[in-house]
Amino acid sequence: MGPPVSFRARAGSHADTPLPRYAGTCFHPALGGTSFYPLRRLGLHVDRGMQLQHGVFPSANQWLEDLVSYVPGKPVEDVARELGLEPDRIVKLASNENPLGPSPKALEAMQKALAKAHFYPDGGGYHLRTALAERFGLGIDQVILGNGSNEIIEFLGHAFLKPGDNVLVAQHAFSVYRIMAHLFAADTVEVPDREYTADVAAMAGAVTPRTKIVYLANPNNPTGTMVTEADLER
Q1: What's the rounded Cα separation, in Å, for the pair 171 and 196?
Q2: Cα(111)–Cα(113) distance, integer angstroms
Q3: What would the mean pLDDT of 64-82 be, rounded to a whole number?
Q4: Residues 6+ away with beta carbon under 8 Å from 111
Q5: Which residue has better confidence, 217 or 33?
Q6: Nearest residue to 39 (alpha-carbon basis) of 55, 28, 23, 50
Q7: Rounded CA gap, 210 and 78, in Å?
Q8: Which region among 22-36, 86-100, 182-196 has the lowest average model confidence (pLDDT)?
Q9: Which of 18, 46, 180, 212 counts the most CB atoms within 10 A of its CB?
Q10: Position 61 pLDDT exceeds 90
Q11: Please, what sign has the CA dihedral across residues 180, 182, 185, 186?
């Protein structure tokens, strides 16, 4: 953790509460939990009623000045309102979501878990990791859990990236790969696709001593294309 960054709330019960700075990620109840902003924006203002005090931004990592926030797909309700359409006539294909809704078994499990919501959960996810490991014939140390893939991609950056390193991605790949590389001052090398499909041979040829991570989603997000098992093993 870096030196504390102090924020002052314009209103509410969190006035003059110190807020730690950690590579552009802000942790504070008055920001609604964990919020992610480009630090250039933080140097000017902070949304949700928070104001950055003078003299803090120059001490932040300067490569974060032009870091761009990930913009998720709009909810169906927002699109319907903006375009004057009925929500049930819209099919959302822009996000990796299940249009059928959660499994009834998942809903039942969540309802049971609510009875213990006042306790901290098992941060290591022992039971879930054990079940996944058994299902796929893995050791529990081969299973990692995250709050969405974004967090796991960030974990990889913490573990492997430093300024001057690079990551390899396919041309039409998940934008968070590039955002997270930038977060750690690493470069992103984009390898052209072949018919919207990752060119595995070209990606392998683009590896250099600076390459620390190669991201290859299969099927790819957002194109939905796949590379063959033979290409992956090659």
Answers
A1: 8
A2: 5
A3: 84
A4: none
A5: 217
A6: 23
A7: 43
A8: 22-36
A9: 180
A10: no
A11: positive
Mean pLDDT of 100-110: 93
**Size of the chain, expressed as the number of residues it contains:** 234
* 94, 73 contact by CB (below 8 A): yes
Q: How does strand 25-28 pair with strand 18-22?
A: antiparallel
d(CA 167, CA 72) in angstroms, rounded, equals: 22
Q: What is the pLDDT of residues 44-55, one digit of tens each?
A: 444 433 444 445
pLDDT of residue 96: 75
- What per-residue confidence (pLDDT) applies to 205? 95
The answer to whether residue 161 scores a pLDDT higher than 90 is yes
The answer to whether residues 207 and 166 touch, using CB atoms and an 8 Å cutoff, is no
d(C-alpha 65, C-alpha 86), whole Å:
40
With beta carbons less than 8 A apart as the criterion, state whether 212 and 188 touch: no
Is the entire prediction scored with pTM above 0.90?
A: no
How many Å apart are CA 94 and CA 101, to the nearest integer?
16
Q: Give the pair of three-digit tokens for residue 63.
A: 């490569």
Enumerate the β-bridge partners of residue 190.
169
**pLDDT value of position 199:** 95
Which H or E run contains 51?
A: strand 50-52
By 3-state DSSP, what share of the chain in percent is helix, strand and coil, each rounded to 5?
A: 35, 15, 50
End-to-end CA distance of the chain: 41
Q: Name residues whose C-beta falls within 8 Å of residue 208's C-beta, 6 or more positions apart in sequence.
A: 166
Decide the pairing of beta strands 18-22 and 166-170.
Answer: unpaired
